[in-house]
Amino acid sequence: MRTLEKRDVLPGADVAAPVTLALGVLFALAVAFAYVLSLADGVNPPDWVRVVGLVWLPLGMAGVPIGYYWSRGGAQRRLAEVGLALGVVGAVAFAALVIAVG
Fold first, then answer.
1. Contact (Cβ atoms closer than 8 angstroms) between residue 60 and residue 87
2. Would you say 94 and 38 are in contact if contact means Cβ atoms under 8 Å apart?
3. Which residues cross the membrane (predicted)?
4. Rounded Cα–Cα distance for residues 85 and 11 (Å)
5. What's the pLDDT score for residue 51?
6. In Å, how far are 1, 13, 61, 68 from 24, measured between CA atoms?
């Protein structure tokens, strides 16, 4: 075992932390976009804008937990924790939207 390696740290953990943060931010923005599309009457963007804006819902929902798991124990673990927190807030807001509109 090398001296720089920590036990139970996956390779690429330092790269996964910023990716987790980016996915958390994009997921939260996609939830905000879903709110605007669902609740604002005057907003009707073209279909390609909807696809680009909402593609981050499933990618963030799946990517944030995977990225957090991958980055645990790494040097930039705090970035992943912020991304996870944004993902949890976004998931709660999305659930509230589905309950309110659904």
1. yes
2. no
3. 12-36, 48-70, 82-101
4. 23
5. 94
6. 33, 16, 9, 10
Identity (one letter) of the amino acid at 54?
L
Residues 65, 16: contact at Cβ < 8 Å? no
Q: What is the pLDDT of residues 34-75, one digit of tens each?
A: 999 988 888 889 999 999 999 999 999 999 999 999 998 888
Q: What is the rounded CA–CA span in Å between residue 68 and residue 94?
A: 20
Measured CA to CA, the distance from residue 97 to residue 102 in angstroms comes to 8
Q: Looking at the chain, how many residues does it have?
A: 102
